[in-house]
Amino acid sequence: MTIDAVLLLIMGVMFAAAVYLLMDRTLTRIMFGLMLFTNGVNLLIVIMAGPAGFPPIVTDGVADDEYFDPLPQALTLTSIVISFAITAFLLALIYRSWVLARRDEVQVDIEDIQVAEQPAYDAEDDAELTDEESEFLEDHEDPNIDYELTTQDDPTVRPHDPKEGDRR
Amino acid sequence: MSDFSVVSLAPLSVLLPILGAAIAFTLVRRPMSQIVVTLATMVITMALEIWMLVDVWINGGAEAVLLGGWEAPIAISLVVDRFSAIMLVVSSIVVLSVLLFASAQGLGDDEAPQQPVSIFHPTFLILTAGVSNAFLAGDLFNLYVGFEILLTASYVLLTIGGTGPRVRAGVTYVVVSVVSSVIFLVAIAMIYGATGTVNMADVAMKLGELDPDLQQLLHLMLLVGFGIKAAVFPLSFWLPDSYPTAPAPVTAVFAGLLTKVGVYAIVRTETLLFPGDRVNTLLLVISGLTMLVGILGALVQFDIKRVLSFTLVSHIGYMIFGVSVANQIGLTATVFYVVHHITIQTALFLVTGLIEYRTGTANIDRLGSMAKISPLVAVLFLIPALNLGGIPPFSGFLGKVGLIEGGVVNGTPLAWVMVAASVATSLLTLIVMMRIWTRVFWRPIEDSEDPAMRGMEEAKRAEANAKPLRTDSRGLVVPTIGLVTVGVALTFVAGPLFDFADEAANDMIHRTPYIEAVLGEEAAQQAQLEADVLEDWGISGSDGAGTQQGSEGGPVD
Q1: From the CA of A1, how many Å to the nearest CA of chain B?
Q2: Distance, in angstroms, between A101 CA and closest chain B CA?
């Protein structure tokens, strides 16, 4: 199989530029990156079909190396359509993101930051709960009623005097 | 009609949902008839797929449908074997229950204006068509098209309503998915350049003749592409970021199906295209990391949907583990585990939807008293939660025992380490699930950090036996009960199902039934694996069991 070096080089440049653009935080650039990426692979499929110049038609008496393989063209056509549709969808999404956030940037996941910033100490997990002396304690006599007031430095529970109706 | 086989109707399981979607699109202004059309389509499709499963279960082997009137390998082939048949049935059961759930949610719910119902149902059907196409594809490019159909539908479903968080999550999701598809497409182009075919059976025969380095390259490219879709550890970062923002039924079906399509493709790559020990060590390490990193992530989250997304990543590790131990019992357990996990994970997300419906939030720090507010929801959560954690009578336990057995049979020190990792992950999953259970269901809601208003009110009313703000909507509860029941039923049919999975694994390891179905007997003879490759899988291959496998259970044709 012969391969067109120029096309291969162009494809390489397209992939390189695409990867570079995909690293960016700006949504428009990411989209350009994806466009280059998908078109680079379309080019790759065409390259894989072999040398250009012949029609993709087989008639009687045509030698093996005198027609072009039609399958890659069909594959490329399919993938062009798919990448076109997805680019259009992404464009709409980016526009919507611009309308909502007024920034052409990948937005930060707030909840992710909340999870990352939550303190290592969790009252419910880490407080040293006092052993209950009897399982017949009334609700308001729960010795652990104040566990939420514990801190990382002092995880022990020191209940104030239980009063009637503490819980309600 | 002696030569009629229901498998020749296989293309209908892709075509029917697309047709249904087309009809549903014309009924945009009539939500009720749209729902009826969608459900009817799914019921018919499911009936057809169950019929195919029964056919495959009885007759065994694999059968191919060649489209376009060409001979293989030129024709586009759809292949129904045991693995794809069971995947089709499980996926349509899940889709049907989620559709019922979503239909009930879309009607008479105050969140309805946020969800454009008119595009939800048709898009859902197109997603189903894509999933079915991916399971049936006997052709790498058709697999790619199947992936694109389901991904494009999933982009729409994930960003439905176009709210801020969904658009934010959607952008990341679309970009990551497109990149994975492009990597897959590059691999297809290179495989075509190297072998001159994209038919999977044909590729499987020709790949073996290539330079081993080139094989390795193609193999790894396919694995990276599928690995992103399946959310395998270093490539799983996008999943917990994007799934939780979508509406409950959408997340449920994504969690159940989309990653499993990736796992399905990995299983096919490892058995059909690149059999034998090539990257098993790498996969073993990755599977262990996926399990542990996923479950550790789940431990620190405080949103139920995010917790479940992380457990999803973690449990993908189990399936990869079963593939990478490279023996029959491991692969059998993987097939069983995929079936189990699709059902259970979807059920858990639906239950989260029920919790949100009653209290208005899925944040663990804002919930409490759920067991008092709705004992029914508590039971519906507890059963799949214990199932996921691997508590004995349930199918999660059975699947994990099978996987661990696979690891033990493998016997290498690394496999033992991964067995230990999988046991630890199982334990941690139980902790994660019980953390949700104790906080959301048992803890009095006043004790939570920031009690949800609606939850407080509901708890107060439940205490006073007053009329609740909202009762559990029957339309939402019934599909959830159905799915939880299917999950429990897996325990009761575990024996036959394991036998079936065993035969599915046997077929896949031998490759011959699949190749025979597409390319005919002569090719299958050639494709028969060397005895030492089969021995790697833990099968004594010298008795030629592979060829008999295809015609097992009497003459098929």
Answers
A1: 9
A2: 8
Spans of chain A below 70 pLDDT: 1-2, 130-145, 148, 158-168
Backbone angles phi, psi at B466, to 5 degrees: -85, 175
- Closest Cβ–Cβ partner in B168, B190, B192 for A107: B168
A71 and chain B in contact, CB less than 8 A: yes
- As a whole number of angstroms, the distance between CA B506 and CA B60 comes to 11
Please give the model's pTM, rounded to 2 decimal places. Answer: 0.89
A94 contacts in chain B (CB < 8 Å)? 171
Chain A within 8 Å of B463 (Cβ-Cβ)?
A: no
CA distance B218 to chain A (A): 14
Residue A122 contacts B where some CB pair is shorter than 8 Å: no
Interface residue B69 vs chain A (CB under 8 A): no
Q: Express each pLDDT in B146-191 by its tens digit.
A: 999 999 999 999 988 778 888 888 888 999 999 999 999 999 999 9
> Which residues of chain B neighbour A93 with C-beta distances below 8 Å?
155, 159, 167, 170-171, 174
User: How does residue B471 score in pLDDT terms, banded at 50, 70 and 90?
Assistant: confident
Each as own residue / partner, the long-range contacts of residues B442-451 (CB below 8 Å, 24 or more positions apart, any chain) are: B442/B371, B443/B368, B443/B369, B444/A167, B444/B368, B444/B369, B445/B367, B445/B368, B445/B369, B446/A167, B446/B368, B447/A148, B447/B368, B448/B365, B448/B366, B448/B367, B448/B368, B449/B365, B449/B366, B450/B365, B450/B366, B451/B366, B451/B368
Q: How far apart are CA B399 and CA B357, in angstroms?
A: 32
The pLDDT value recorded for residue B551 is: 36
Tokens of B384: 């799949």
- β-strand partners of B303: B363
Q: Which residue has the higher pLDDT, A143 or B517?
A: B517
For residue range B98-148, what is the model confidence (pLDDT) as tens digits? Answer: 999 988 876 544 444 445 557 888 899 999 999 999 999 988 999 999 999
To the nearest whole Å, the CA of A134 is away from the closest chain B CA by: 20
Helix or strand or coil: residue B33? helix
- H-helix segments, B164-233: 164-195, 200-207, 212-230
Per the CB < 8 Å rule, is B192 touching A48?
yes
| Contact residues on chain B for A114, CB-CB shorter than 8 A | 302
The tally of CA atoms less than 13 A away on the side-chain side of residue B288 is: 18
Lowest mean pLDDT among A93-107, B236-250, B517-531: B517-531
CB atoms within 10 A of CB A58: 12
Residues 89-108 of A with CB under 8 A from B: 89-90, 93-94, 96-97, 100-101, 106-107
- Residue B327 binned pLDDT confidence (cut-offs 50, 70, 90): confident
Query: What is the ipTM metric for this complex?
Result: 0.83
User: What phi, psi does B65 have (nearest 5°)?
Assistant: -110, 125
pLDDT for residue B116: 55
A8 inside 8 A of chain B by CB:
no
The shortest CB-CB distance from B141 to any of A38, A75, A89 is to A75
Min Cα–Cα distance to chain B from A118, Å: 9
Query: Residues B397-424: pLDDT tens digits?
Result: 999 999 999 999 888 899 999 999 999 9
